[in-house]
Design brief:
Elements: E1 15-21, H1 36-49, E2 52-58
Parallel strand pairs: 1-2
């Protein structure tokens, strides 16, 4: 690997991480996804430990939203 191929992150804040968490599915045979909240909590903890600013959006539909 060449040095120009490496993305270095030197700032104290790494960037923005967006978690889209869908626990409830109304138009699917999936119904409710148990364990979703634990997954979100663990992912947020990991991303924050890596100095990302984390935003979570819950139960989004297939409609376009402004983040």
């Amino acid at each position: 690997m060449f040095e120009q191929d490496v993305y270095t992150v030197k700032g104290s804040v790494r960037g923005r991480a967006v978690i889209i968490s869908n626990e409830f599915f109304t138009h699917s045979s999936l119904g409710v996804r148990p364990g979703n909240s634990a997954d979100v909590m663990n992912l947020k903890k990991l991303l924050k430990s890596l100095n990302f600013t984390v935003e979570t959006f819950c139960d989004k539909t297939d409609k376009v939203d402004n983040f």
